[in-house]
Amino acid sequence: MAHAREVNFPEGTRIFEEGRPATAFWIVRSGAVTLQVPMPGRRPAPVEDLGPGELVGWSWLFPPYVWQLSAEAMTPVRAYEFDAEAIRMVMDANPAFGSAFGHWVGRVLAHRLHSTRVRLMDLYAPRSASGSLP
């Protein structure tokens, strides 16, 4: 927590955008954040809603440190913001912490990728005449 600062995002704030540099991450204290996949010519597709205690952003941990999704505050959000470079330095300096933290982010990443896949299949997979997936 020595590298955290409290931040607030008003409802509707774009917290980060796909393709932009990933220089921070957040732990939600209160409120709701939606992760989105930008869709050319369409509104962004929501893939997951995050709430208190959840990690917002993982792209800061892996080169080239560029956001893979976008995030928007759906309600007023209070969060802890962490400087990505400082946390990477702490992880490098303390291998036990770095390993534990990396495994935590990895579990979050695996969950997010699964959620994104399921949501995109929901939105774009062909349906049978009954409305269910073939």
Automatic annotation (TrEMBL):
Residue ranges annotated for the Cyclic nucleotide-binding domain, each copy included: 1-91
Superkingdom of origin: Bacteria
Entry's transmembrane regions: none
Entry protein name: Cyclic nucleotide-binding domain-containing protein
PROSITE patterns linked to this entry: CNMP_BINDING_3
Organism: Streptomyces bambusae
Pfam families hit by this protein: cNMP_binding
InterPro entries in UniProt: cNMP-bd_dom, cNMP-bd_dom_sf, Env_Response_Regulators, RmlC-like_jellyroll
